[in-house]
Structure formats: structure tokens, C-alpha cells
Amino acid sequence: MGRGFSVAIVGATGAVGQEILNVLQERKFPVSDLRLLASSRSEGKKIAYKNEELTVRTAKPEAFEGIEIAFFAGGPVSKELVPEAVKKGAVAIDNSSTFRLEPWVPLVVPEVNPEDVEGHRGVIANPNCSTIIMVVPLKPLHDAGRIKRVIVSTYQAVSGAGREAIDELLLQTKQVLAGEPVRPQVFPYQIAFNLIPHIDVFWENGYSKEEMKMVLETQKILHDEEIKISATTVRVPVIRSHSESINIETEKKLTPAEAREILAKSPGIVVEDDPAGLKYPMPLFTSYRDEVFVGRIRADLSHEGCLNLWVAADQLRKGAATNAVQIAEILINRNLL
Ligand SMILES: NC(=O)c1ccc[n+]([C@@H]2O[C@H](COP(=O)([O-])OP(=O)(O)OC[C@H]3O[C@@H](n4cnc5c(N)ncnc54)[C@H](OP(=O)(O)O)[C@@H]3O)[C@@H](O)[C@H]2O)c1
User: Fold this and answer.
1) Which of 72, 175, 268, 312 could lock onto 180 through a cystine, CB 3.0 to 4.6 A?
2) Which of 16, 84, 159, 214, when mutated, tests ligand 1's pocket best, judged by the most ligand atoms within 8 Å of its CB?
3) Looking at ligand 1, which residue's alpha carbon is closest to its atom 44?
4) What is the pLDDT of residues 119-165, one digit of tens each?
């Protein structure tokens, strides 16, 4: 057993931060010292880790003194504090979108492009959650048949918008059932018994920023700017686990059977594809799991050489916390800290 590492979690009180704590424990990540950081609102709050009660501190530059690995799950605070953590000698693994498209920052999904961590300059970005969930199955199919075009529609859980969004769905559901008025706060409209085709801000080109993240981040992770991607991202009243309907066009035709076989052998993927036996991925059952689940694999009857897939995965786990901890494990294994 190697040595332990000093670890900080920024945003430890949030949805992703809490999940990072769970994943570190489950994977027996070698932690020698754990510092939990959040906004000043959470100063002094206690959080259980293993058999201890840890006290949350305010995230500020001094808090990174002596830290080797800093997980960032505090949203926009990354912009100011990631450089401070790096200055103090930590490697920052950042869940925010701040650095993802910077050419000098590796954007890493361990099943897809682990080698990109080599030569890092202190910051490694965790991709957008919907992007991670999509690229895990795209990668082996791209290797086998070279993907030319992707059309994806997402069905994204409310927890993708953080802790308060979960509370909002639960509260609104009760209010609607009780015939009480609903006052949306986190989302622009009522999300209970509804869906909202709008995630993050809209760009001038008519796409939302979430949709453009899926385009630009996928091209960066797969090192292929030729891949054409068209995304529609939608918030649905599901607590946890994003789902995606993905249509791919490959240069070399892949049959559904070939795709099923390739995916079943690929890391981090569970193929759940037996329509007759009513087996297909669903968010209720992919929640709290680390793998990406793929099913409904079928030929696109409207276009030769295209396949349809239905994919679901827990975006708080594989789409955020698990992916970040896996990156840290790669850094340790490759002596890159
Ligand atoms: N949710 C997902 O599925 C998901 C997936 C991938 C990436 N992400 C990204 O992960 C990050 C965290 O998301 P989340 O869903 O966990 O949000 P969340 O549940 O709203 O949690 C936000 C966290 O950030 C902390 N925070 C807010 N302002 C801060 C400040 N000024 N200084 C230090 N900490 C501050 C909060 O602390 P307090 O409790 O003190 O307010 C809380 O711990 C975001 O960048 C998000 O885009 C989220």
C-alpha cells in the first residue's frame, strides 16, 4: 500500500462534493488528510467522513497550503481559486466549465483519453456530465467505425443543477399534488410534471451553452474536430441520472450486433439491451452506479450506416465525482502529482 495524499474538496457541501466524499471512501482512495471547503455560509458545519466528523472551512487561498490534490465542485469559484491552489503546489481537478476548453488544460475521461493527463500544468478539467456519459460509448464505436456525425437529445435529471434543484422538484411535486401554487426558483419554469428544453444560457446561434459543451468538449476529448454533433438538451423531472438518445453515423458501417459486442467489451460500460425481456437502461436503476448503461441498440431505418442508442448514467457519479476521482487515481498511478 502506497502513501496517503492530502486532499481538499471545494464545494464539499454540494451535490457533487458530497458524492466525491462517498466515492473516495468506496474506492479506498489513499487520503492522509482531508480538507472540506465551501462558501463562508458553511463555515463550521460538520460532515461525516469514515468514523470522523470533519469541519467545513471557507474556501480561500490559504486553505490550499500543503494540499496535493484539490477537487473543485464549487461552481464559478474555480476561476479565482484553481490558480491559487495550483500556486500552492496542488493539482486541481475541476468540475466547472471554466478551464475545459483552454488548449493547455487536459479534458479527461479515464476510459477515453487517460493519456491526456501527461504533461498537465496543474489543472485537469472534468468534462460536462452529459458529455462524459456520451463519450464513454462513442469512443469504442469511433475506434471501430469512425464516427462522422452524432445527433443527441438528453433527458437530464434535476440534480445536474445542484442540491437546491433536487429540493425544488420534491417541493413542487408536493405542492402540485396538494393543489398549492408553485413558485419556480432554480429553474425558469415549474419542473414537476413538466420538462424544460433549456439548460444553461442560450447562445446567439440558438443553441444552449449545455448543447455547445456537448459539441466542443466531445471534439476535444476525442481529438477529432471533424465529428459533427447536433445536441438538444432537456431538463426532466427525474432526481438523478441523465439519459440520452444518441444517433451516430459511422464511416464504416457497424451492425447493431457488432456495436453491442464492441460496447460490452469496453471499460465502464454495461450493455442492457433485451427489449423482449424489458431490459433497457432507466435512470431509476442507473442511479448510484458508476458505469454508463447502453441499450436499445438498433439500426436507423431512415439512414444507411446509422445506429440508435439509448444511454443512461448517474451524472453525479460518472458525470462528475467518479470521473474526477478516477483522474486522481491515474495521476497517482503515473506519478504525475
Ligand atoms: N450536479 C451535477 O450533476 C454536476 C455534474 C458535473 C459538473 N457539475 C459542476 O460541479 C460544480 C458543483 O455543482 P453541484 O451540482 O454540486 O452544485 P451545488 O449542489 O449547488 O453545490 C455548490 C457547492 O459550491 C459551494 N460554493 C458556492 N459558492 C462558493 C464560494 N464562493 N466559495 C466556495 N464554495 C462555494 C457551495 O457551498 P455552500 O453549501 O456553502 O453554499 C456548495 O458546496 C458546478 O461547477 C457544476 O457545474 C455538476
Assistant:
1) 175
2) 16
3) 75
4) 999 999 999 999 999 999 999 999 999 999 999 999 999 999 999 99
